[in-house]
Design a protein that fits this description.
- It is built from 13 helices and 16 strands.
- Helix content is 41%, strand content 21%.
- By secondary structure, it is α/β, with parallel strands linked by helices.
- α8 runs antiparallel to α11.
- The structure holds zinc ion.
- It comes from Lederbergia galactosidilytica.
- Keywords: Carbohydrate metabolism, DNA-binding, Xylose metabolism.
- Transcriptional repressor of xylose-utilizing enzymes.
- One of its GO terms (biological process) is D-xylose metabolic process.
């Protein structure tokens, strides 16, 4: 919302619009920017001066003259400043440094089991301090951008509800800013992944897009006419807690038969172990004996090797997730649905099964030119999604 007469806000808006054009079209001249964004040459020049002072933009050579002097071109200065993206899920924290093109420069992960921390905020702050200690120029850090599963109030910087990490109404932004003195951004993980696709992925042009994530949780982010639909209190997209079976198991949210209990990695793991204990033959049986536990990676390998048990369980996940996706397709009529998350990444078999299912069961009018697609970023999608929350604010103030 632009308040008329708020000069500071307009300056910030102009700055992010100009910065975005430089990112997308640079090297570009000041005159060309003024033409493209329809902002006066004087304003463009003063914005670029400010952006150069902030080391976000640099001059780079000259362009073709249209009569007079050759124009000096400007482009993004991608590597002087950096930002930290942090993806927190139920089992691990991934911390990565990024340049302004959302390229990962350094990345580490910490496993997140109950025995590794007593308070997830304190644990996160300690790990961030360790990570930042590796950088000489901390002043060049533009900010820390964190995504969580569950319900997040992005405006207030509060994790409203995250049952897996036992968090409720935690003012994480304030806590981190007080401890590290670096601007901090927080959003839901799936919203971050959707922003990554819109900013840097293969599907930037789509204006009605849904991103579904499936891993240790299940969530959705909904882009309606190029704006994220957040709901009344920021809780939209809790796809994993849509009920598909009222005779099903009790969910951690208190309801019965939620989708998540049929398709999440935890549900999948229990199902594999149960089938093995009943004597089903599978290469996963040896893996479980040798390593003591199954990972998504070993499950994917078994699917690739066409292990009958792994394939039948993958088909079953595709069936239940497919049921949920048909409901989403018929309700929102999206242009595309991107399915990411650890269970879907590097898993073309799964994406194909989902496409077959929704094509058969959705309204015919809704599946014309429609496709379910994998994430553009594979295993890095979560952490690039985290970084994209800050980058989105830096480059596009117009889409929320
Ligand atoms: Zn639930």
């Amino acid at each position: 919302m632009v308040r008329k007469g708020d000069a500071k806000l307009i300056r910030e808006l102009n700055r992010s619009i100009i910065l975005d054009i430089i990112r997308k079209q640079g090297p570009i001249s000041r005159a060309e920017i003024s033409k493209v964004v329809q902002i006066s040459p004087t304003t463009v020049a003063s914005c670029i001066n400010a952006l150069m002072e902030d080391s976000l933009v640099m001059e780079s050579g000259t362009g073709v003259s249209s009569g007079g002097r050759k124009p000096i071109l400007v482009q993004l200065n991608p590597n002087d400043r950096f930002l930290i993206g942090v993806a927190v899920n139920a089992s691990k924290i991934t911390i990565a440094a990024f340049n302004l093109y959302a390229t990962v420069q350094k990345k580490i992960s910490h496993s997140l089991r109950n025995e590794t921390y007593s308070d997830v905020c304190d644990f996160l702050i300690t790990r961030l301090k360790d990570f930042l200690a590796g950088f000489e120029q901390k002043d060049n850090c533009l900010g820390i951008s964190i995504t969580f599963q569950g319900i997040v109030d992005a405006n207030k910087g509060v994790v409203v509800y995250n049952p897996k990490l036992n968090m409720s109404n935690v003012s994480l932004k304030d806590k981190i800013e007080a401890a590290l003195h670096i601007p901090t951004y927080i959003d839901n993980d799936t919203n971050g992944s959707l922003l990554a696709e819109k900013g840097y992925g293969h599907y930037q042009q789509a204006k009605n897009l849904i991103y579904v994530t499936i891993g240790d949780g299940v969530g959705a982010s909904i882009l309606v006419n190029d704006a994220i639909y957040r709901g009344y209190l920021g809780g939209a997209g809790e796809f994993g807690h849509t009920t598909i079976n009222f005779n099903g198991p009790v969910c951690e949210c208190g309801n019965i038969g939620c989708l998540e209990n049929y398709v999440s990695w935890q549900a999948t793991q229990s199902r594999i172990e149960e089938e093995l204990s009943q004597g089903k033959q599978s290469i996963l049986s040896d893996v479980l004996k040798k390593k003591g536990q199954l990972t998504i990676e070993t499950f994917h390998q078994a699917v690739l090797q066409q292990d009958p048990l792994a394939l039948s369980i993958m088909d079953n996940i595709a069936f239940y997730l497919g049921v949920g996706l048909v409901n989403i397709i018929n309700l929102f009529n999206p242009e595309k649905i991107i399915v990411g998350g650890e269970l879907a990444n590097n898993n073309p078999y799964f994406i194909q099964k989902l496409n077959e299912f929704v094509l058969k069961h959705s309204l015919e009018t809704h599946t014309e030119n429609f496709e379910i697609l994998p994430s553009s970023f594979g295993d890095d999608s979560e952490v690039i999604g985290a970084a994209s929350v800050l980058l989105h604010d830096l480059f596009h103030s117009t889409i929320r």
